[in-house]
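Throughout this chapter, every protein is written as a compact record of paired, labelled lines. The reader may check this reading against the record printed directly beneath this paragraph:
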Amino acid sequence: MSEISVPYAAAAAPDAVLAPAQPAPTTCITCGGPGVLSFCARCGQPAPRGRLTLRGIASHLVTDVFDLNRGLFFTALELARRPGGVARDYVAGRTVRYASPARYLVILLALTTLVYLKMGVVQAMGTDFTAGINEAGAGPALASAQKVNELATRYMNLILALSVPFAALASRLVFRRSGYNLAENLVFTAYVYAQQCLLFVLIAGGVHFGGLGGQSVWFPAYLVASTAYYAWAASGFFGQRPLPAVLRSLGAVMLGYLLYFLTFVVVGIAWAVVAITAAGGLPPR
């Protein structure tokens, strides 16, 4: 009887003997959802894995940035290979492999701003601007111009980012027959704009820091490369043939900049009127 009981017990419950131990379900530490094994089905919070360690943080950082199957590096490679396809995937809901357009854009904007400042582009533009005002004899406006230059340098990220919604609106208007709404055009524009920032870093930064020339060299090269990239991405995303995509892309780019510029002019005039009114009006002549 004893010789049969042990094999019989193993045969009666093979899963209990052969299956690996599974972690017990826990309660989500964020939303309190029940039955969490790896991720919470309600909010996506990963199951607790013990205390944070430097090794764990480094591992997650490497995975997020350099993972060839997902993450930032994968997104950059795919946007270099098939920009329209990436935006179409994300709009269609296939998002898990890509960095979100907002996250990718913020990171590339920060990198672009850093290169801008290191190259001295913003400072040079501000110096030329204030020098022109000074030569024109508009001394009282010089302090305001210097203040504008300081604000432009400090908030370069924001100034660059604010152009994205206007570019998205322009592409929505120019490519309206494609059927994409404004939010979907915003996804497309954010990915394309971020990749254009990467082109700026590679072209302008490479020329400048490599000692290959100044703005007269890198600016036309970047302008041609970024415009061609936009047209290529638009062709894939909106389903346009190459020539119509190029023409419509040029129209969308110019319209986006025009909307952006006009908005800033209107806001600037309104701000000036408010400032003058608060100061008691224009001084008497």
Summary: Residues 242-278 form the longest helix (37 residues). The CA atoms of residues 208 and 214 lie 6 Å apart.
